[in-house]
Amino acid sequence: MTLVDGFGRVHRDLRISLTDKCSLRCTYCMPAEGVPWIERDSILTTDELERIARVCVDLGVTSIRLTGGEPLVRKDAVEVVRRLAALGPEVSMTTNGLRLAELAQPLREAGLARLNISIDTLDRERFAQLTRRDRLDDVLAGIEAARVAGFTPLKLNAVAMRGVNEDELVDLVEFAVGQGAQLRFIEQMPLDAGHTWDRAAMLTGDEILERLRTRFRLEPIPGRGSSPADTWTLDGGPGSVGVIASVTAPFCAACDRIRITADGHVRNCLFARDESDLVPVLRGGGSDEDLVRIISGSIAAKRAGHGIDSPTFVQPDRPMSAIGG
Ligand code: SAM
Ligand code: SF4
Fold it and tell me: Does some domain include residue 2?
């Protein structure tokens, strides 16, 4: 049995949010204060996470990405990696990098296959403004530790923002190349807790490429598969850059993702308005078949696309940090 939706999309990529908590407060993701945290008792235990992952692997999932919030804020993150990797799928993680100096090596040994680290600016003051924490040095140390631990190819994520870091796009790419990493720019999406996203203010994928072409010769790399990023070689390679244009060039038609929130709700899309709660089954003595029924039901109900560009689009109630990016 596989997870197939009404449009024939087979779901093989599971995203699990380990926590909604975070060590940063990026303006496009979380408010400065007053975050409505998920209650501690509602956060899935490691056993519950492992059980959901096992059921999904049996349903054809081949890769699991751990995210959040900040996944490395969770105390047993290394143990979670070890237990999920033992189930067989490729396990990867998206992190703000703050704890990697200490954890990159243990994560590698636990079976983590790939790491994406988020870094939107190389300027310390700008970093402090954007994330509301003065921690750029920790991210840089984390990137170095990831490289030393053997996480290659390393990917670095940057949300490109007009009037914030648009003057740094070339510098970020050069920094990534120097680290043997691939920079991937992300269009800002309407997932901030303050609901302040403005499409007109968003830097588009085309604008990102235009800025990069002032410095690099870009040649498209064919064959993106179900990856959200379009990629280009830089000056003939081997360095490359990616652009995730989720708003202006959505990749919904090839989407193979399913998400589990830190409190055990299945979401069939980042922008879904509905979620299906697995907790009554997990904590009420339900069977694996009950979990399969809920998870496949959620996928069966998946819409064709997220519809950000539609006039009827409504931003989800949960911010990115509580859904799992
Ligand atoms: N805390 C980790 C991190 O920052 O990498 C993992 C979770 S974070 C929600 C995952 C990714 O989503 C990050 O690369 C972040 O920059 C991106 N992100 C967060 N809010 C976003 C938004 N409104 N639009 C586009 N990307 C966003
Ligand atoms: Fe935290 Fe990641 Fe959101 Fe920034 S983007 S506030 S690091 S969860």
Answer: no
